Each structure stands twice: as C-alpha cells, then as structure tokens.
Amino acid sequence: MRYPEGAVPEHSMPQDAPSPMARLLRIVAKVEPAEVKAVVISFLYFALLMGSYFIVRPVRDAMGTVYGVSNLQELYTGTFVASFVLAPAYAYLASRIRLSTFLPWVYGFISLTMVSFYVLFQTVEQHQDRWVAALFFVWVSTFNVLIISVFWSLMADTFSRTQAKRLFGFIAAGGTVGTIGGPALAALLVNVVGTNTLMLISAAGFLVTAWLVRLLEQEKRRLGTAGGDAQTTTLDRPLGGHPIEGFTLLFRSPYLLMIALFILLMTTISTIIYFQLGDLITKAFDSREARTQAYAMIDLAVNGTTVFLQLFGTGRIIERFGVTTGLLLNPIIMVFAFLAIVLSPVLLVLGTIQVVRRFAEYAVAKPSREMLFTVVDQESKYKAKNVIDTVVYRFGDVTSAWLSAAVLPCGVAGLAVAGVIMSAVWFPIAYALGRRYEGVRSGELVGEPVSAAAD
C-alpha cells in the first residue's frame, strides 16, 4: 500500500523516542525522559548563577584584604547584621508577591546592585576606597548565600525526595561548572579590564539567570500536573504569612533546628579556614590583583576536581550509601585536616586542605544537605530555609570571625586546634540529622511540616 508523500502509518511511527540528550542523561545521572528539560534548565541556571557570583567572589576577597585581614571580624559582623535585616524583607516580599514574579526579580535586583557598585568604584575618591571596599564585601557576602538559598529552595520545591537523590548531584555539577568558569574568567581578565569591570560582567550574568528562572517555573508547572513524582506545589501565589515567619517556623521544628545547628558548625569551621588562608595570602602577596588571582586559582582548583564526581558519582554514592554518609564526610575530613595544619601551618598545606574540604562539601555534602529540605512544606522551603541559609549561616561566620581574630595572634596552629574541637562536635550532629531525615519513611517526623511529596 502506498501512502501520500511524507506520510507514515501511525502504527509505524516511533512513540516518544528518547533524544540523544535524554539517553546521555539517563546513563550519566539516571534522568528520566520526563525530567530532562527541567534538569537541563536547572543545570544551566545553577551554572550561570555560580559563574556570575564567582566572577566577583575573588574581587570580594581582595576587598577584604584592602579593609584589613586583622579587621575581617568587623566585616563579618556587618554581614550578619545585613543578613538579619534582609531575611524579614525577603519573607515580607515572598508573602505578598507571587513566587513566579518574585524569584526572578531576586536576581534582577542583584544585577542592578553590581552596576551600582561599578559606578561607585569608578567615582570614589582614593581616601574613601577602604570604606567602599568594606561595603562591597558586606553586600556580596550577604547576597551570595541568598541567591544560592533561592536556587535550592526552588529545586526542593520542584523535585521530590526520591528524585533529589538521583538528580541533585548532577544539578550541583552545573554550579561547579559555573564556579570553574567564573574564577577562570576573573583570573584571565582582571589584569586586562581591571577589577571594576568584572562587576559589569557579573551583572549581565545575573540578568540571564533571572530569565532561566522563568523557564524553570514553566517546567515545574508541567511536571507538577503530569502526575509523576515531582512536587505538586504552585508558584502562582504569594506564600502569605508575616515577615518573621521564617524564624517562627524554624523554632517550632526540631528537624529544622537540627539543620540550623549543622549549618552553624559547618560555617564556623569554614570561617576559621578562611581566616587562616587570608592571613597567609596577605603575607605572601602585596597587590590587590595578586591576591585576587590567588583566591581565583584556589577556586579553580577546587571546582575543577569537583565537577566530575558530581556529574558521574554523587547521585550513585548517595543512593548507595545514603544521605547520612554524605553529611558525615566533611566532619571526618576536617578533623584530620586541622591536625595537618597544626603540624605544618604553611600556605601550601592550607591551600591544599581548602581544596579538599570544599571538594568534599560541594561534591557530596552540599547536595546531601539540600535534600533535607525536600521533605518539608513549601513555606519552610522558602522562609525557614532562607533564615537558616542567611541569618544562621552568617551568625556562624561572625561568631567564628571574632573567635579567629582573638586566636590569630597565637598563629595559624592555634586556629587549627579550635577547628579540631569544633569538627569533633560536628560529627555527632551530622549523624543524628542524617538519621532523622532517613526516618521520614518510618514516620519519625510526625508533627513536622512534612511535604506531601516527601516520598
């Protein structure tokens, strides 16, 4: 039988044949065909977000040395105060503006501030440079945790617990790709275009990120109505409530408080390392550009070693060994790392440890930590999570910053001893949190604000 030109009998047409991209993602990260578009958008979203931030991250770190490493605790105090103010403002806006409108504008607003700082640095007088550097450090240190928190809130509000175990490692690799590209671009261009112009490049990246958020919102809507495993919540509404609801949700939930304690210890230890590294880099390099390059090269080394495990191994590791193992990895590493610093407090050792610590955190611990929020309700995902990721995170920063400043005269080895003690306390907290998360299936979170799509 002959058919009209171009026509094919219906029974002979392939039904939903997977594309090459879908087949590749299936092999790499066990991505189901229906999830491909959402996963690809999420990957690109996180890549551009982190790339845009990491372009100005070494600039921020260099600005901290302009203000003075011995006074960094003052900048951390300012960052904590700014975060404490920003959290209720964020909750207020999220309570009154539809999330589908509000979330893209978070990144649009960051873009506008980068342009504003570019203008400010171009016009500031030399004697005011130190104070403008401090303002820039505080603002970048405030919004960096906010933008990442918003990203992972949207991930936890899009994918279910079971999807997260398969997909979050791969999606996190998108961020790592961005953290490779950002520092590489900064290190390459800083001596060509100058430090200030990097802010304009970052601003353009944040604008494109806002557009990708809109695309992901549309894909979330499709997944939620397709009857699959994804979260079924909607972004076409404001969250309601009051500006301090993130705090009340946090203090009413033992599970969220345990996450907050885990983040607090993690941040405290990270800040101790940051102070040690900043002290050694300041002594080793004289100019702002040289310090910017040093920080950028450390970022590049960290992220270059992380991306392959995230792409090919994180999801399989977490599926095989569980979230508890992922949470325990960093506390174990840091005990041995700080002992190594005590024995040899030099830049090479500390730089290597920073690479190892952040490799373990970004490749396994970070995706594991973000999975903890897939089992709570939508309000907790955006409001309580924001408080944990900003106020609690920065409280850990400011506490350890003042502690580090007090101990720094004793030398890097003195800071390392404090780090060993805190890492030893961190271990049982990580274990208890992981076990509580795994207990969702057995009903141990009865009374908690558990998401309908927890399983």
Briefly summarize what is shown.
By secondary structure, the protein is mainly alpha-helical. The protein is built from 15 helices and no strands.
Distance between the termini: 51 Å
The portion of residues assigned to helices is: over 70%
Average pLDDT confidence is 81
Regions with pLDDT < 50 over 5+ consecutive residues? Answer: 1-15
Rg value: 22 Å
Class by alpha and beta content: mainly alpha
- Separate helix tally: 15
- Largest sheet, strands/sense/barrel: none
Strand content: under 5%
Overall outline: globular
What is the string of helix and strand elements?
HHHHHHHHHHHHHHH
Quick one: how many beta strands? 0
Could you describe the 3D structure shown?
The N and C termini lie far apart (51 Å). 78% of the residues lie in helices and 0% in strands. The protein has helices spanning 20-29, 36-67, 72-96, 99-123, 129-156, 161-193, 197-225, 245-252, 254-284, 288-312, 314-321, 323-343, 347-371, 378-407, 412-438. With 455 residues, it is mainly alpha-helical.
Task: Please render the helix and strand layout as text.
Elements lengths: L19 H10 L6 H32 L4 H25 L2 H25 L5 H28 L4 H33 L3 H29 L19 H8 L1 H31 L3 H25 L1 H8 L1 H21 L3 H25 L6 H30 L4 H27 L17
Helix pairs in contact: 2-5, 2-6, 2-7, 2-10, 3-5, 3-14, 4-5, 4-7, 5-14, 6-10, 6-11, 6-13, 8-9, 8-14, 9-13, 9-14, 9-15, 10-13, 11-12, 12-13, 12-15
